[in-house]
Design brief:
Distance between the termini of chain A: 55 Å
Helix content of chain A: 55-70%
Strand order of the largest sheet of chain B: 1-2
Number of helices of chain B: 14
Oligomer: heterodimer
Strand order of the largest sheet of chain A: 1-2
Strand content of chain B: under 5%
Largest sheet of chain A: 2 strands, antiparallel
Largest sheet of chain B: 2 strands, antiparallel
Helix content of chain B: over 70%
Number of strands of chain B: 4
Distance between the termini of chain B: 66 Å
Radius of gyration of chain B: 20 Å
Shape of chain B: globular
């Protein structure tokens, strides 16, 4: 079986599949860790019970999401070697240390303080517990720093040399880490994580407010989430635009694919809104386009000339249709988020924030929009980097492990079955936790203390983390 | 060049240290999963899970450091070994997925779905332990390398020797798990863990013996390393120490001590690990690639060395603090009110 398959295509499918599942959890837990730190800080500062109830409510959900992030992340850290061994050999000296620093500065910090954050409130006291929560939140951000640096180096490699064995080596670590696309990608991704979390928090709040608009916890979380959407969605759109201009400078071919620009335009390129990019024919079919607007958006001038894919050898074209459409899905989600933020601002001004069924329903429908945008954005940037793993320098076909197709096909099938079963169950458990509103005396994961009292473990008489 | 050799050696010890800390910290953790079916009572299972829930993902982070560190410090070894160990590695990763999520999921199930995550927790732990042991055996027996790539098939790892090392490691982890329970629990649960420890200790001694006897037959280099003069002066203390620690371990079990069985079992692991190091040195892929051939350029290794020097002590510090916070016996039903 599978002998006729292309092992590299299978390996790419496996990486894309496992990565897509993985990114969902960190995108959520980066934002949620910061949100938890804010909630605990507000609780300690104001002493209002609603904040500790919300903290404990989201902490249980965080625990489930974080666990799934950890196990799907371990898979990623080994998959470079199992499936992309040639890539690992060649780039290990440059991006290996970045990932090692991620483990040393972030993963250990998160894991080391997570136990205390989840189960330790009554053991260490409020201040030390808040410190643990902060360390977990900071850890998630440090993790984003290193892994996005590594990814950005693959997109816009700088500060490297190549040694006699054909390996990339670092000539200047500062230029490796702070490569040209890194600051933009970092800002764009962290904001995306915050928005993703805010939209989930807002949707859960909206869900409960639709049933009872007077619930204290849902009102607080909904209001906080809508402020995030109002303030961060416009910032994110601006950051995304800046990131796009950076991409135009360093990875123009990716922009050509995102825009569907097969043809060069000497005096102003159109903005293709929709259409069907036909890679073989080299044109966008059924295109709906606005003349010259493309040049205005990208070059800020109506008549600026724009080169198209016709200036690039075909073997260096990324898959245009995927890049083109995933980009539009991401932008569409971003515009919806902007709309939600503005709508909520208007409702807030009118004093109907908690009562407007239209707004609450809209917020509820937007629950998955952050995840969709994150996935679509990553698909855009990773597909747009093809056919290279290190942009312009190392081809994807030269990066894969020397594995037979049946080996990769078997593992891919195993991952698909296991991930849908395991993470599907995890999502169900998170939805169950979200289905009940936070209430007075909400308990945390340990469920053995007055502030985090029993009840969440199905077994009466036993509680987790109840050591000594 | 001298400096490069020194740094590569330092890094070989750092990676070895990370892998060993992983074995120390996640070994008992996986062992608890392997022993799960022997504790059918739900209350016992809850205590077992509780004893490790606050620390399990910190434990597994050492595995990420081992893998990530290997890629960074010895990319060639990482690039050759991972495809060679493809099947056991994927099996290990999937096993870790099942057991890792079980820690959280188990508390989220409804009464009607009770125990739904107990079998995945057991099976995931067992598969991960077997896969790690098999990977170890497969590395020891050597892999087929051409140029800078693995050149064998995807079932080359499967031999009687790798199966033996797989079973041996699973037994060792189970013993760590049993002695951990002796240390962390009370009453009937602890008594049962005692009895299991006896049985598992004899099984582990048998496994260490079998692997020790089989290893020299793999390659003449291993035989020479262990038995040739004057090497034997340096290698002989290892089996002598194993015998001595075994006696101490038997005594500590006979006297029903709390802490000693677990830490003496860890000492047995450390000795076996030292033996492994003696067999492999200076190869990172036995008979094919030395640590110097696999080493990253000096500037990569030095760049990381700064981080390791500062951060590893810090990590060990706050990890110890976390264990300290959750110290002592885990009581069934404590905190219930």
């Amino acid at each position: 079986m599978f002998e006729g398959w292309d092992a590299v295509v299978l390996a790419r499918a496996q990486f894309a599949f496992t990565m897509s599942f993985h990114i969902v959890f960190p995108a959520f837990s980066i934002g949620l860790a910061s949100y938890l730190a804010v909630l605990e800080g507000l609780w300690l500062w104001t002493g209002r019970e609603v904040f500790v109830n919300l903290f404990n409510y989201w902490l249980k959900i965080f625990a489930v999401a974080f666990g799934m992030g950890v196990v799907s992340g371990i898979v990623m850290s080994y998959q470079f070697g199992t499936n992309w061994s040639a890539f690992s050999d060649k780039t290990g000296p440059v991006i290996g240390p970045l990932m090692a620093y991620e483990v040393l500065t972030a993963f250990f910090l998160e894991a080391g303080f997570l136990g205390v954050m989840l189960f330790g409130l009554e053991r260490v006291g409020h201040r030390l517990h808040f410190f643990a929560t902060l360390m977990v939140a900071v850890g998630t951000l440090i993790s984003a720093f290193w892994i996005l640096s590594a990814n950005s180096w693959m997109q816009t490699p700088t500060g490297y040399a190549i040694n006699a064995d054909g390996q990339f080596i670092a000539a200047d670590w500062f230029k490796v880490i702070f490569n040209p696309s890194f600051p933009y990608r970092l800002v764009h991704m962290v904001l995306a994580a915050y928005l993703t979390t805010a939209l989930v928090v807002g949707a859960v709040g909206a869900y409960h407010l639709l049933r009872d608009p007077h619930l204290a916890g849902p009102r607080v979380m909904f209001s906080m989430a809508m402020w995030m959407a109002t303030l961060v969605a416009p910032i994110q759109i601006f950051a995304g635009d800046q990131h796009g201009l950076n991409t135009l400078e360093h990875q123009p071919v990716k922009i050509m694919a995102m825009e569907g620009h097969f043809q060069s335009h000497k005096d102003g390129a159109p903005l293709i809104l929709f259409g069907w990019p036909d890679q073989a024919a080299g044109k966008v079919k059924y295109a709906i386009e606005v003349p010259k607007l493309g040049s205005l958006v990208l070059k800020h001038s109506l008549d600026a000339p724009m080169a198209g894919l016709d200036t690039v050898p075909r073997e260096n074209w990324p898959p245009v249709a995927i890049t083109f459409w995933s980009f539009r899905i991401m932008v569409g989600m971003g515009l919806l988020m902007l709309g939600l933020g503005l709508f909520s601002l208007w409702a807030r001004w009118r004093g109907t924030l908690y009562d407007s069924r239209l707004l609450l329903t809209f917020a509820l429908m937007m629950a998955p929009s952050g995840f969709i945008a994150v996935l679509a954005g990553w698909i855009t940037t990773e597909t747009g980097r093809q056919p290279f793993t290190v942009y312009g320098l190392l081809r994807t076909v030269d990066s894969a492990s020397p594995l037979a197709a049946p080996a990769v096909a078997s593992s891919l099938i195993a991952f698909i079955i296991v991930y849908f079963a395991v993470f599907g169950a995890g999502v169900v458990y998170m939805l169950r936790l979200m289905a009940a509103p936070p209430h007075h005396g909400e308990q945390g994961p340990s469920g053995n203390t007055p502030t985090r009292a029993a009840g969440i473990t199905p077994a009466a008489g036993t509680t987790r983390g109840a050591a000594s | 060049m001298t400096a490069a050799i020194d740094i590569a050696t330092v890094w070989a010890f750092i990676i070895a240290f990370a892998v060993f800390v992983y074995v120390v910290m996640d070994g008992f953790d996986l062992g608890l999963g392997i022993l799960f079916p022997l504790f059918p009572r739900k209350s016992d299972r809850d205590v077992i899970m509780n004893s490790v829930a606050p620390v399990w993902d910190g434990n597994e982070t050492w595995l990420v450091l081992g893998g990530g560190g290997l890629m960074a410090a010895f990319p060639l070894a990482y690039a050759v070994l991972m495809p060679a160990l493809y099947t056991p590695m994927i099996a290990m990763l999937i096993g870790l997925v099942f057991r890792g999520v079980a820690f959280e999921f188990r508390w989220r199930t409804r009464p009607s779905e009770r125990n739904r995550w107990d079998i995945p927790f057991f099976a995931g732990s067992l598969v991960a332990a077997l896969a790690q042991g098999i990977a170890l055996g497969a590395i020891l027996q050597g892999v087929h390398v051409e140029g800078r790539q693995y050149a064998g098939g995807w079932w080359d790892w499967l031999t009687p020797f790798s199966i033996l090392t797989g079973i041996a490691l699973a037994i060792g982890y189970a013993l760590l798990g049993a002695t951990w329970l002796v240390m962390k629990t009370e009453g009937e649960l602890r008594d049962k863990a005692y009895h299991l420890s006896w049985f598992l200790l004899f099984a582990m001694i048998g496994a260490i013996g079998a692997v020790s006897i089989a290893t020299p037959f793999l390659h003449i280099q291993y035989t020479e390393r262990w038995f040739s003069w004057p090497n034997i002066i340096l290698t002989a203390p290892v089996p002598i120490a194993v015998a001595a620690v075994t006696v101490l371990l038997l005594r500590s079990l006979a006297r029903k001590w709390d802490y000693q069985p677990f830490f003496l079992t860890l000492t047995l692991f450390a000795l076996s690990y030292a033996g492994l190091g003696i067999s492999m040195w200076p190869y990172i892929v036995p008979q094919s690639i030395t640590i110097w051939q696999a080493a990253s350029p000096e500037n990569s290794q030095i760049f990381m060395l700064f981080g390791v020097a500062v951060l590893i002590p810090l990590i060990l510090g706050y990890t110890a603090w976390s264990y300290y916070v959750f110290r002592g016996k885990v009581k069934a039903g404590s905190g219930y009110h």
